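worker-3 :: picked tRNA-dihydrouridine(20/20a) synthase
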Amino acid sequence: MIDAVTNNPLSVAPMMDRTDRHYRYFMRQITKQTLLYTEMVTTPAIIHGDRDKLLGFSPEEKPLVLQLGGDNPSDLAECAKIAENYAYDAVNLNIGCPSSRVQNGNFGACLMAQPELVAQAVAAMQKVVSIPVTVKHRIGIDNRDRYEDMREFVRVVSEAGCRNFTVHARKAWLQGLSPKENRNVPPLRYKEVYRLKREFPHLFIEINGGITTLEQVNNCLTQIDAVMIGRAAYDNPYLFATVDRDIYGETKNVPSRHQIVEGMLPYIDYWLGKEVRLNSITRHMLQLFASQPGTKRWKRHLSENVHLAGADSLTVSKALSKVSL
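worker-3 :: tokens ->
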């Protein structure tokens, strides 16, 4: 049996302004087994902010990992404990984001230059929780991007007890490239991630970056333990419609796009009753019919009507009626 977190072969990457609770619930209409992540949440936000708003989720979203951003081991430990109390399945430390805002807080990708501090953070978190503590990092940063640099980072952090590493198979430039450019401009270096797995066979190594098809997923899984898909999971969410069957061995029927939308309707009405804006939910659904006949009509109806007074699940049903079965 596949473990929900520590041995899960497929996940959707944490993405800022993308993987909020409404997107995750939507994805659960498509795949029940794929591991999902929150957006990155910083430790100060959790310690001082509205925790229910930041950390709340529907039980249907599990298995679910909270991604943390921070560099203070005691703060990270406190937040890991809070995550466990909220019933997250694991916590993940972000060592991959290259944005200037994140760098100013001394966390994200810049921490690849401080493996000992990351190890201290992992150890502090593991000391106070029983759920897994995992790390997501890059191949390297700036001129510290030799394979040997990444191997040393993983060695140090793994010796602190971390067993799960997700590697974005690109280096990050901390200066000169935007976060978007850092997702596309540095070349992919899959072979180095595969080598990492060979040299650390006892660790669970997941690869991330540039993977957009299930054929690529299956090819990667011959070399590596797991695959994380990022932007393709948002731009083409129906990509995941067959994974419960084809990756996880489930025997249930593959949901149609229409069934997925219909599954969202009660959820939409529930959150509208709590004064959540309809667009906060439907914006994640726009790409469901990507590359299908009627996708323009679907997106146009939603875009033109979800902001109107009285818009509700019926608005979504009307948009669905414009797409052929």
